[in-house]
Write a structure and sequence with these properties.
Strand order of the largest sheet: 5-4-8-9-11-10
Number of helices: 12
Order of helices and strands: HEHHHEEHEEHEEHEEHHEEHEHHEE
Largest sheet: 6 strands, mixed
Shape: elongated
Strand content: 15-25%
Length: about 350
């Protein structure tokens, strides 16, 4: 019976539906006053760098042209899911969208036993994104960085990486999964960013393949207002920033209904387990390859801050990664331990 396979049933209904999420209706049969009351229209004009019209008719016509609202008969309008999820003044007034708000939970330690703080956004993504991002970054631990002449503190995780991953969680979520939305959980040793839905491409190919989104209109608008990176460059930059700070490699995981990305706090190489090292080696090889370069023992030593005389340590990591099938020699005929080049398994 189909009822015994609820996930398959949801997938089938999604396939049968000809109308994308963004075009479905969030609130219907509203007057102009009710549209203005429910949508933060000044934020729309501000974010898109347009002058605010001097009359309501001009405002309504712009919202219609952006498909944030649709006109029914006369002066009666519907707010689309795209309009509500981006510009709602209060998502709690949108029954179908209220559980899609971004939720942030800060925990006391490394597990979920005790939470210190929790915040759930109530505004649309476009209007609340920068504020929510600021809140997230303010909760993150700081790491002391020692320069040539002074010490300074910076956040443990690169802000660009947090920005891109939170934007991805918003854009690539499956809105057909009810009762859940983007979730950011902050622990003392990591930050986990989770969104409903499984990705449309293999997590092992996040670095080299352009993203595929279920929500193209939402994604296009978020790029237009500079909330996320241009197509195909976001995860590359996340990996690059992580490498520059010499953090453990991000982990991408998929469950039955969710996708989770984990950024880890700084660890010395000696404290990383084999899985940490192999994951970092693979991502480093991917990053070098998409930059039209090749991973070498030398580049991996730089990534891990391994001294030149300890090149055999990098060789062991490379060997372990080859054994897992994640990388392969670029030129099998030239396998000098110190100068061989390596590429991802898919190259």
């Amino acid at each position: 019976m189909l009822k015994d396979f609820l996930e398959k049933e949801r997938e089938l209904w999604a396939l049968f539906s000809l109308e994308p999420f963004e075009k479905s209706i969030a609130l219907e049969s509203l007057t102009v006053d009710e549209v203005i009351t429910n949508l933060n229209y000044p934020a729309y004009f501000d974010l898109t760098k347009q002058s605010l019209p001097d009359n309501r008719d001009g405002i309504i016509q712009r919202l219609i042209s952006e498909r944030l609202i649709v006109q029914k008969i006369g002066n009666i309008f519907d707010i689309t899911n795209l309009g509500g999820i981006l510009f709602a003044k209060d998502l709690r007034n949108f029954e179908r969208l209220s559980r899609k708000a971004i939720r942030v939970v800060i925990y006391k330690g490394k597990n979920r036993v005790e939470s210190l703080q929790e915040q759930t956004g109530i505004k649309g993504y476009a209007t609340d994104f920068e504020g929510m991002l600021g809140f997230i970054n303010d909760q993150l631990p700081k790491n002391e960085q020692i320069g040539q002449a002074f010490r300074r503190e910076q956040r443990m995780y690169p802000e660009l990486a947090i920005r891109q991953l939170v934007a991805n969680a918003i854009i690539h979520q499956d809105f057909n999964i009810s009762g859940t939305g983007p979730l950011i959980e902050i622990f003392t040793d990591r930050i986990e960013i989770t969104n409903p839905g499984v990705p449309l491409i293999d997590t092992m190919r996040f670095i080299d393949q352009p993203p595929r989104s279920r929500n193209e209109d939402l994604a296009a608008f978020m790029r237009r207002i500079n909330i996320c990176e241009e197509r195909g460059s976001g995860i590359d930059k996340v990996i690059l920033m992580v490498e520059l700070l010499q953090l453990p490699a991000p982990e991408f995981q998929v469950t039955a209904n969710h996708t989770k990305v984990t950024l880890f706090a700084y660890k010395k190489l000696a404290d990383m387990d084999k899985a940490d090292r192999v994951r970092a080696c693979y991502q480093h090889a991917c990053l070098r390859y998409v930059s039209n370069d090749r991973m070498t023992n030398s580049s991996l030593r730089e990534r891990f801050s391994i001294k030149d005389e300890n090149y055999s340590m990098a060789s062991r990591i490379i060997s372990d990664t080859i054994d897992t099938g994640l990388i392969k020699p670029y030129d099998p005929e030239n396998m000098s331990r110190k100068h061989a080049k390596y590429i991802p398994f898919w190259a």
